[in-house]
Amino acid sequence: MSGINEVKYDENVKRVTRKVDWRLIPMLILMYAISLIDRTNLSVARTANDNKFDEELGTDGDNNRYSIITVLFFVPYIIFELPSQFGLRAFGARLWLGSAVVLWGFVMLGMGFAQNWQTLAALRAILGLFESALFPGAAFLISCWYPRKELAFRNVVFYITSALGSSFAKLIGFGFSHLDGRAGLSGWQWMFIMYGIITVAIGGLAYVFLVDIPSKGTFLTEREREIVMTRIERDRADSVPDPLTGAKLKTYSLELKSWFFAVAFMGTTMSSYALAYFMPRILTIMGFNNIESMLLGTPTYFWAIIPALICGRVADRIPNMRGLMIIFNAICIIVGTAMYSQLPAAQRAARFAGLFIATGGGNANVPLILAWQAVSIRAQSKRAFCSALTVAFGGVGGILGSTLFFNKEAKAGYPTGVFTIMGLNCLTIFGTLAMMYWMSSKNKKAKRGEGLIEDAEGFFYQI
């Protein structure tokens, strides 16, 4: 290829990449933002209107009914992560994921008319069923469109923008709560109804704008599609879909690195979910009133943009930094969690700063772990399996984050929950160090011609 042709090819690559960015990422951001809002807005509903939620549904006091409501979401969410990937491949992303969003939007509408905590708990379980399709599906789609050197930053933009958008749920929910008393409904009921309407509308947009895997990328010309698939082939040789069979599932499930990424993801999501569900209560314990506790959580997500984008860019651009970035953010989770939970009550500013540090570490590590998992494997069937497994363990983290923060331990700083978070992230640190050493050893052997990594010539782990 001549120098002029190389320049033209590079210019075309940049143009096509931007086209993919603008068509794929914004729609996924919108869908996942409403997903995060719909699964975590219980904390806002519970705090609004002087805790009418607890009074009307019977979740007040030291009973664990609120924890039951939160945790039931994750049971079907975890169980149906992997089966959802079969549906995605059978029906395509637009129909499968768009329908999932519309259906859970109707579930949200139903939650607005719940008369007791049992009904709300059952609807939360159905919500988990439909939401199980989105996150692994989104992670799979992103990993299919970009070479490995571009994955971490795209994952960060997708996730952190979604998380930031969802943080406004507290502000918007506070506005919806002012409908308290209209049509005989409480403010928390109006919150669920309004969010349900918004969710159904977003699902409708997905039917129109969401794209599928590159080989089905009809928004691209044939030449543009060829550029995308050529880049993927050169990077990891898996641009063409391969069937996900029972034999492959067995093989993939026996690989240790798949389980490492899943467990590391669990520790990170436990911290993120705990803050999503309990930050208003934590702020109340610090001495802020109900309105302040609903509003003051949003700035922590603005801060999270900074470490997430920096770590994502470093992980993609500088060799052998993916594991170190994950270790750095795990340390931030541990330090931040200790600060907001264990410092004396008089040190309110330092405790508040701990929320920023923990939120930044958790929200940075979610996309970084997903990206490191994606760049360490080949084959679309394996991507589907590993995405589902990792996100399923994220659901386990959600269960831990929503059940181990006991109401009776609130004044003591939720010791059971916070020490579990710190312990799991210590495990992430040591596991990451072990994985870095193992990957480095495999790379050295592959370079000496002593075997292939992922059954591909020239494929090496990015550490």
From TrEMBL:
Keyword Ubl conjugation: no
Top-level taxon: Eukaryota
Keyword field contains Metal-binding: no
Transmembrane segments: 20-37, 66-83, 95-115, 121-144, 156-176, 188-210, 258-279, 291-311, 323-343, 349-372, 384-406, 418-438
Membrane topology type: Multi-pass membrane protein
Database matches in Pfam families: MFS_1 (PF07690)
Compartments where located: Membrane
Stored PROSITE patterns: MFS (PS50850)
A GO molecular function held by the record: transmembrane transporter activity
GO cellular-component term (any): membrane
Annotated ranges, domain Major facilitator superfamily (MFS) profile: 27-443
Identification of the protein by name: MFS general substrate transporter
Source taxonomy: Eukaryota, Fungi, Dikarya, Basidiomycota, Agaricomycotina
